[in-house]
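Tokens for Transposable element Tc1 transposase. Go.
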Amino acid sequence: MSRSSEVDRHRALGLLQAGLPISEVSLRMNLKKTRIFRVRQRLHETDTVSDRPRSGRPRCTTQRQDRDLVRNHMNNRFLSASASSPHTRERNNQRISAKTVRRRLSTSGLRARRPYIGPILTQRLRHQRTLWAQEHAAWDRIQWRSVVFSDEPQFCIDHADGHVHVWRRSGERLKDTKQIALGNATGGVEHL
């Protein structure tokens, strides 16, 4: 269940101070009775209805370091989290883990995805493909038997096939495909 806002808490307290019972305030505000009771109890104990501080481990990176990580991965989208983690240090000068890098990138909306591998279709290539399809539209089975299609997938059973990942946001699958295809410093897959 989501938390009630501080405005709702003050409104509930105002209704209680106006003399309404908890059940009536609960109906009017569409909140559970226990929530309203706890808000009133917190006001009596702490003189405030604000959230109490929560425990939890403090962040090991600063906001500036987080922005630097995102910027580095946006400039080189094929950079792995494990490759960038040794270059970022915590506040106490220890290196951060690759998992922390992935969390920071995920918070900013970046996800590690398999790169798009396929033709970069320009207007000229689309036109040529359309012409080819129109020329071969009337072919029969006998003519198609002499054609060999060589786009079968490759399977690696006994070793890693060297797949790389690209960091991108949702909807960026084909964005700037030409720019990334022209040159990638890592020498890996060339298409986004």
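DSSP finds nine helices and two strands in the chain.
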